[in-house]
Structure formats: C-alpha cells, structure tokens
Amino acid sequence: MTAHSIPKLDALPHSLPLEGAVRIELVEGVPIFRASSQVQARIGALLDQQKTAALDSSEERELSSYGELDDYLGLVNRIIRQELQSKPSPESTARQDFPLAGSVLYYDDPFGPAIDPDEWDALQ
Hints:
The chain is mainly α. The chain is 49% helix and 10% strand. The chain has a domain at 22-89. The chain is built from four helices and two strands, in the order ββαααα.
C-alpha cells in the first residue's frame, strides 16, 4: 500500500448528522464516498442564503467545514481509485510468482531424468 498524507480535520460541521451523512456508491466497481442528500440540501441552503444575504460567522464556519469535508472525501476517493488501479490482476501476479506456469505441457515420467542423459554429459 502506498503511503499517503491524509490531512487531519479540525472539526466536523455541527449540523452534520452523525448517521447517514455519507453514502457509498459503486462506480465501475469502485466504492465512491459522497455526501448524503440531507447534507447536500444543507450545503445548498447555505449557498443560497450566501447569495441573497451575508452568512453569520457560525454559518460561514459551517460552510467552510462542509468544504473541508468535501475535499477530504474527494481525497479518500482518489486514494481508493489509485490503489485499485495500481493492483496487478491475479493473472499477472501468477505470472510474476510462477513464471514457468503453464509452459510445460507434457512430461512422460516424473521419476525419470529431466533431461536426456546424452545432454547431461554435454552440460558437465
């Protein structure tokens, strides 16, 4: 596994539900972490409010925390995708571990000499 520098989050948004905040989707066999629809609705409400009026300091911190959390989930998703892409397939692993696997199609006598005795003399 590759060493990654994962940032530490200072705090989670106070409005973040402790359960159901993140959903997992499979995209092409890769698990992707996304904010739940409830969290997305809260972010949308804060962004809409920000367009029409200034957010108070706690709402600014909350929106900033959601941004950090979104960045964090994006990083986790990239790490997972990179790890899955860097893993060799089982077939290539078998070829690396056993390079001669499948190359011997037939062998007459498992207790007989591996090479012809005439060739053995030539090798010595």
